[in-house]
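Researcher: Please generate the 3D structure of the following complex. Treat every line as part of one assembly.
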Amino acid sequence: MDPTLHTRRKFLRTSMLGAAASWTLPVFLEKTFFTLDAMAAEAVTQAATGKDGTILVVLQMAGGNDGLNMVVPFGDDAYYRSRPRLGIPAGQILKVDSYAGLNPKLTGLKSLFDEGHLSIIQGVGYPNPNRSHFRSTEIWQTASDADRNESEGWLGKYFDSCCAGADPTVGVAIGDQMPQAFVAHTPTGVTFSKPEQFRWMPSEKRTGPMSAEETFFRQLNGGNDEDTAPAANTGGSIGAIAGGTKVNQSAVDFLQRTALDAQLSSDKILAIARKYKSNMPYPKGQLAASLSLIARMIAGGLPTRVYYASQGGFDTHAGQLNTHDRLMTELNGSLSAFVADLKEQGNFDRVLLMTFSEFGRRVGENANGGTDHGAAAPMFVLGGAVKPGLFGKCPSLTDLDHGDLKFNTDFRSVYGTILDRWLRAPSELVLGHKFSSLPIIG
Amino acid sequence: MLTPLAPDSWDYAKAAHLLNRAAFGGVPAEIEAAREKGLPTIVRELVEASAGAAPFPAPPWAQPRNIREIRMAIREEKNEAGERKEKRQKFRQMEGESILDLRRWWLDHMMTTSAPLVEKMTLFWHSHFATSVEKVKDGYWMWRQNDTLRRHALGNFAALTKEISRDPAMMIYLDLQQSRREHPNENWARELMELFTVGIGHYTESDIRESARAFTGYRIDMTNQQFRFASRQHDLSPKTFMGKTGSWNGDDIIDILMKQPACSQFLARKLWRFFAEDEPSAQIVDAVAARIRQHNFEMRPVLREIFNSREFYSDAAMRNQIKSPVQYLIQSTKLLAAELPAAPVAQNAMRQMGQILFAPPNVKGWDGGKAWVNTSTLLFRYNFANYLINGDAMRPGTDPSKQKGADLGFRRGPAFADIPRRDPIDVSKVIPAELRGKPTELVAYLSTRLFQAPVPENEREAFLQYLKAREPDAGDGTMRGLLHLMMSTPQFQLT
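Model: Done. Output below.
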């Protein structure tokens, strides 16, 4: 029995005793128990955190972001030759050097760059690039070679190898479905789009602070005390579950543990969502909502090492100009608000945010004012502890692979650097190889 | 080593176990009927029932089209960028609707079929020969593959593997149709060995390269969406595969693979994991593999022996498996005597539970077992039970959220705007009226119905206490509350 589980069970037992008794008690007493319960939840939250851990936020730009119009090589005539309609005029570019600059909508990111909190890694990709969204996303999520199929994600492998026994909220993905990057041998991490959905919803209307149904739900999903766990399995004549022989292996034991984890994570997340509201104005949109939620979780001290958020809509085959402008505006506004929020919390130095997309787009624009699936593209890494600058070489716009940019930095070098230097996890263990390190973290 | 189960040990619990695993579970009357029939009879019924016995018509849209012509028509709208975009969007929307329909079509089939083992095995093969519409992007091809899997579900594994090598959806998924004599594509060849037949460690990189040449010339005719063999693209020169040299073609390669001892072992392990235990012992894998070889990869007799064996009813197997999301949805719907949810709701729920049909996460298929459950999917299952029981009347819940109406994240996006409302279930179909005032009998009855077994004492006590707390109300609301409470437990996730 690991000590955290022991403590959590103890906590739950305490709060459950209150709750379990409450259905027979007068209303004023129920209230007292409910308050106690909330306080206990608070205590657990506080104890499980610690304000010193580093945090990684992964931001997926789904659909294949046009890297060339995000970090623009305005100093190369080939860029304008390839993109007569989509080329962004040099005068509008937010220049970072005499060759490359940021999309005009990325004003906040430019300020961040100037302040020394943004590093831009150019020409990131992998050998034998795949141009299917599905497959290339899979490659990025699992950090596998292009000709290997793996099911576990790179962050999942990190959870498995470096966070065994950790709180399940060590990984938090905002969305409907757990990203493949989180898939681990030992299921870890929680996924939700709204905290209100990451909780059990009773089917009756509550009359007091806790309905009878909820009271017993908590009891049934509280896990068993270590001293009664085997008894619970052998207890009745339940089918043929052999309590004595495989208490630690049985499906029911695993489920009980997960149920307990779910209940505690849910309580913790809801408690934080209730308590921590941000004063920072965020723009509209899904990405901003996700980042604002992440900022609240960070403020509330959820013991999370990795957060995951995504922005969709980058598959710009036609009429790209307006669409990509809108996406860049959304990205810029959401990230600026997030950074300001973290700075106000005093947590900016603890957080590192990394962007990625499954591929960049073709160098030449197509006949529909859009771009087709490409290969290498830039990544952003930002945070208080980032070493600023432009890293990696911008790939040649004329020496192409089937019309696509050739990568010169393997994306796993970025993952490896973040694992080694930021999460303090041995990257070789997680990625299976040692990839060359990048000087992006101070 | 597969020992037949002694006839006198056949009982209700074992009948329930058989129906859970070889079908989608039964209500008490069905389990009792199976118990009465006796093991040999019920196994014969399950194994002999064939898909043909109850024909299930293909969805009306599942017809081959002339893809080449459609693509050309879209391309011809050259000067009308807007129209072209519109046409392409319309085409994509149609594809999205057909796959939504296909998912519902299969779930309906699982609900109503008289040959449930055929559907169980079709699901097994779908995860074995995993192929995703995310890459294939065509409803007809996905339906066609599903039909192939169903036709061969209880048939011969070698024959099925050969069919799958010619299956357009698989050919697209693993890039086989791009394989040319000068540039053989190794993706299919690699997965054929690693994931479909012998497993990792039982072939060399050279076996991959050599066998990839044997599958050259496999093509898809885009005018009718069917397989065609382009003999001019086929590499006729000799190949050395698994130590044998010859001018092997694709079928020869599959025949050679079937002769490898690792192949029957690989299949035996997967079968046992799917039907019986998460972690099969080496002995049981050997035993099942021996039966597979004995029966020449014919699935029907192998399955008959598995379901008749004592090992299948061992303590380690019974009620020690986590329901897959498919099993969860179908079995819950049956146990609640309810209808399946609307197609978009079912699709969204399957996505959130981690098993969206026709879109396995990768070519390895679904890992299954404990991988089905994490904190998020478990909470989702609990809340989805609430939706299945209470429908859209599902309570908004506790005050922290103050949200209005049921929201499990189902109703996002324009496609979800006009989903019909779901009514609460008819409690009288689930709970006999005479049990309402008798908490002990009621809880015993529902334990048998929902868990197919008595529950541990502390859980039984919690259900009784709940009823007591609700007294004197024993109306439909309380009954639905009890059902939801019982389904919001680890026990209900077991099968």
